[in-house]
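User: Just a sanity check before I run the rest of the batch. Below are the C-alpha cells for the first item. I only need the designed sequence back.
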C-alpha cells in the first residue's frame, strides 16, 4: 500500500497529467543565464535534477516579461527579446525537455516588478511604473500607468507566455503576489487610484484580468495558467485573505490553478514571503484553505513544507490540492523519490537558514561565494561541476576520523564511490556537536538532518566504530590508503578572571538544563550565544542578559535569519553590545562600557560562547600517520555546517 496516498494521487488538468501532488516552486538564483538571457547548462542541469527527483511540476524561476521596466536584475531567462538567436531557442527547448522527459510538467514564472524598480536597473533609464504615481522615499519617481501602458504590459505578458508555449512549456505561472506589479494593482495598500482601476476590489482587479484575458486571446485555452498570489500581504493596509479569496473566485474561469503564498518580497521575514526557521511549517496553509473554500480550481500551498507527513496531512485535510516546495528542492531534490521508495528517513530537510541572503553584519554586502549554496546539500548548484569530478581509478581503504556532519558526509560520499570506508568516532554517538539539537526547541530540522546523515552513513555500508580515542598509532593500525580528519573544534576560553571557575560554555546548558538558574548571563552575542539564549528563554522561561563586545550581535547570521531572530526574540532576553566582561563571579559578572564605566550584573548561571578554535596540535600529530591525509571541517577552520559537508564531499571525491 502507498504510505502517502494523497501525496501520490495524480491529477489531470486539460489533458496535462500531474503524476503526484508535489511541485518544485520557482526560486531566484543568480547562476542561470548568459548575458543574452540564454539558460546555461548549469541552469538546465539544476532544473533537470529537480524533475529527476520525482516532482509533478518544475517551475522556472522568476522570469521577467521585459528587460526594461519589468526586471529587477539581469540574471533571468529571456523569452521576449526580438530576433532570438538559434542558440537561445535551442537552449529553451532543451530546458523544457529536460524537465518533461522525467515526467514533470514544465512551467515558467513570468513577472513584472512595477513600482519597486529602479532607474539604474531599467535599461532605458526611465522611471518605474505602477498603479499610482508618486516619489518614493529613495527619491525615485514612479509613473502612474495609463490604459495604454496597461495594454502594453498585457501584450508583453501574452508574448512571453506564447514564447514559453512555443518552446515546449506546458504551463505558465503569473506572479501576482509578493508586492510585484499585478499584486500592486490588487492591493489597497499600493493601489489608491480614484478612477475605474482603483477603489473597489472589482476595480483593482481590472488590470490583472486584462492581462489574463490577453494571454488567453493569444495563447488559447490549452496553455495551463497558474496564478501566484499573496493570500494575505500581512502588513497594515495590505491585501487580506477575504479579498484574496474573492479575487480568485472572480478569475477562476480564466486560470487553471491558484498558487497561494503570502507577504511582500521586501518585507519577506515578517510577512512570511519566505518563512524562517522559527515559523511553523506550512505557514501559509491557512490562506490556501481560505481560498479553496470558495473556488472550484486546484489550490497550491507553499511555505516551509519539508516533510511528507506535512504534505499528506495538508492534502488529506482538504486544505489544498498541491504543495509546492522551494528551498527544500535545493536541500534534497530527490525528496519525492525517497518518499516513494520508503526512504523518507534519508531526506535532508531544509533548515530554512536563508542561504540566499547576505550577512547581517553588512546589509549592503552580498557574499557571492556562498550565495545559493545549500547548507545541507553540497551538490546543489554544483550539478554541472560534479559531473566532471574524476572517476575512481582504484578502490581504496579510507579511514574517516570524526563522526560529525563533515565526517559523515565524507564517509557517505567515499562509500558511494565504491571505497571501503571505516569511520572512527571518539564519543558513543554520531553527529558531533549537533547532539544539542535533541534539546534545542528551535532546531528540530537540524536534528532531523543529523539523523538522516546517520541513516545514510549506515546504509552506505560504512564500518562505524564509536568510543575510540584516535591516536597516530590507532590510524596506523588500520593501514589505510587515505585518511580524512574531521575531529572538529573546541570552545575558545577567554582569559577573563574567574571565568574558568564560575562559568560554563553555552553547550553545557543543553546537557544540564536542570542546573541552569532562572537568571542567566551569556558572554558572547554571536549566533551560538544568541540562539542558546532564545532556547533557554522559550523552553525554560529563563531571563537572559547577553553581553557582546562588538557593536552588533549575531553578526555571523545571514540577513534574513538575523531579521527572524529580531522578530522572534523572547522578551526575557536582553542584549547589550559594545561592552566587555572584566570578571566572572559565582553570583554574576562585571563589565566595562565604552566610556570605561564598570558595572555589575547578578545571575544564577553564567555561560559563555566566545568562539571556537581548531584542534591544530591534534591534527598535526594525526597527519603524520598517513601521507594521504585530508583535513576538513572545523579542525581546519571553525565554520558552519555548510562548509563542513562541502569539504567532506570534495575530500572524498579527491580519493581516486
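Assistant: Here's the designed sequence for the first item:
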Amino acid at each position: 500500500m502507498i504510505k502517502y496516498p494523497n501525496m501520490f494521487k495524480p491529477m489531470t488538468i486539460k489533458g496535462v497529467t500531474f503524476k503526484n501532488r508535489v511541485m518544485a516552486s520557482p526560486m531566484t538564483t543568480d547562476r542561470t543565464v548568459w548575458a543574452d538571457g540564454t539558460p546555461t547548462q548549469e541552469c538546465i542541469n539544476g532544473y533537470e535534477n529537480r524533475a529527476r527527483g520525482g516532482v509533478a511540476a518544475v517551475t522556472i524561476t522568476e522570469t521577467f516579461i521585459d528587460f526594461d521596466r519589468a526586471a529587477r536584475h539581469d540574471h533571468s531567462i529571456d523569452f521576449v527579446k526580438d530576433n532570438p538567436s538559434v542558440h537561445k531557442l535551442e537552449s529553451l527547448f532543451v530546458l523544457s525537455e529536460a524537465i518533461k522527459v522525467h515526467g514533470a510538467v514544465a512551467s515558467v514564472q513570468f513577472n513584472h516588478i512595477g513600482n519597486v524598480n529602479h532607474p539604474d536597473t531599467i535599461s532605458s533609464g526611465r522611471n518605474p511604473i505602477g498603479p499610482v504615481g508618486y516619489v518614493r522615499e529613495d527619491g525615485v519617481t514612479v509613473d502612474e500607468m495609463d490604459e495604454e501602458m496597461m495594454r502594453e504590459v498585457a501584450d508583453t505578458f501574452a508574448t512571453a507566455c506564447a514564447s514559453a508555449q512555443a518552446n515546449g512549456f506546458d504551463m505558465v505561472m503569473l506572479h501576482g503576489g509578493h508586492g510585484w506589479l499585478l499584486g500592486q494593482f490588487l492591493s489597497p495598500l499600493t493601489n489608491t487610484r480614484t478612477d475605474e482601476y482603483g477603489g473597489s476590489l472589482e476595480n483593482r482587479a481590472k488590470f490583472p484580468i486584462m492581462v489574463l484575458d490577453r494571454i488567453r486571446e493569444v495563447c488559447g485555452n490549452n496553455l495551463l495558467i497558474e496564478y501566484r498570489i499573496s493570500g494575505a500581504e500581512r502588513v497594515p493596509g495590505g491585501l487580506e485573505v477575504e479579498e484574496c479569496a474573492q479575487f480568485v473566485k472572480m478569475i477562476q474561469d480564466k486560470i487553471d490553478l491558484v498558487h497561494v503564498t503570502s507577504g511582500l518580497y521586501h518585507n519577506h521575514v515578517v510577512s512570511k514571503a519566505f518563512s524562517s526557521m522559527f515559523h511553523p511549517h506550512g505557514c501559509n496553509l491557512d490562506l490556501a484553505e481560505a481560498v479553496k473554500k470558495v473556488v472550484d480550481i486546484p489550490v497550491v500551498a507553499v511555505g516551509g513544507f519539508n516533510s511528507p507527513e506535512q504534505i499528506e496531512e495538508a492534502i488529506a485535510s482538504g486544505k489544498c490540492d498541491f504543495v509546492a516546495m522551494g528551498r527544500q528542492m535545493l536541500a534534497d531534490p530527490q525528496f519525492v523519490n525517497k518518499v516513494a521508495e520508503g526512504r523518507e528517513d534519508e531526506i535532508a530537510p531544509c533548515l530554512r537558514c536563508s542561504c540566499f541572503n547576505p550577512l547581517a553584519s553588512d546589509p549592503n554586502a552580498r557574499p557571492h561565494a556562498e550565495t545559493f549554496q545549500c547548507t545541507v546539500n553540497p551538490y546543489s548548484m554544483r550539478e554541472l561541476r560534479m559531473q566532471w569530478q574524476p572517476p575512481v581509478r582504484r578502490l581504496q581503504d579510507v579511514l574517516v576520523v570524526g563522526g560529525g556532519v563533515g565526517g559523515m558526509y565524507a564517509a557517505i560520499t567515499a562509500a558511494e564511490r565504491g571505497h571501503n570506508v571505516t569511520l572512527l568516532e571518539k564519543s558513543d554517538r554520531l553527529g558531533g556537536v549537533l547532539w544539542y539539537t535533541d534539546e534545542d526547541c528551535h532546531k528540530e530540522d537540524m536534528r532531523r538532518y543529523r539523523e538522516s546523515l546517520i541513516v545514510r552513513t549506515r546504509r552506505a555500508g560504512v564500518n562505524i566504530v564509536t568510543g575510540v580515542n584516535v591516536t597516530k598509532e590507532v590510524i596506523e593500525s588500520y593501514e589505510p590508503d587515505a585518511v580524512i580528519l574531521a575531529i572538529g573544534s573546541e570552545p575558545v576560553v577567554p582569559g577573563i578572571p574567574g571565568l574558568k571557575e564560575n562559568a560554563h560554555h553555552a553547550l553545557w546548558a543543553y546537557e544540564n538544563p536542570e542546573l541552569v538558574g532562572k537568571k542567566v548571563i551569556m558572554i558572547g552575542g554571536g549566533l551560538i550565544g544568541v540562539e542558546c539564549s532564545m532556547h533557554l528563554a522559550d523552553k525554560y522561561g529563563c531571563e537572559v542578559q547577553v553581553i557582546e563586545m562588538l557593536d552588533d550581535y549575531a553578526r555571523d547570521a545571514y540577513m534574513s535569519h538575523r531579521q527572524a531572530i529580531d522578530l522572534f526574540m523572547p522578551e526575557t532576553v536582553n542584549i547589550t553590545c559594545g561592552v566587555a566582561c572584566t570578571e566572572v563571579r559565582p553570583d554574576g559578572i562585571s563589565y566595562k562600557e565604552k566610556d570605561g564605566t564598570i558595572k555589575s550584573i547578578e545571575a544564577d548561571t553564567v555561560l559563555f560562547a566566545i568562539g571556537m578554535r581548531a584542534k591544530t596540535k591534534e591534527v598535526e600529530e594525526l597527519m603524520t600517520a598517513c601521507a594521504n591525509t585530508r583535513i576538513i571541517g572545523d579542525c581546519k577552520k571553525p565554520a558552519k555546517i555548510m562548509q563542513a559537508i562541502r569539504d567532506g564531499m570534495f575530500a572524498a571525491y579527491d580519493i581516486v
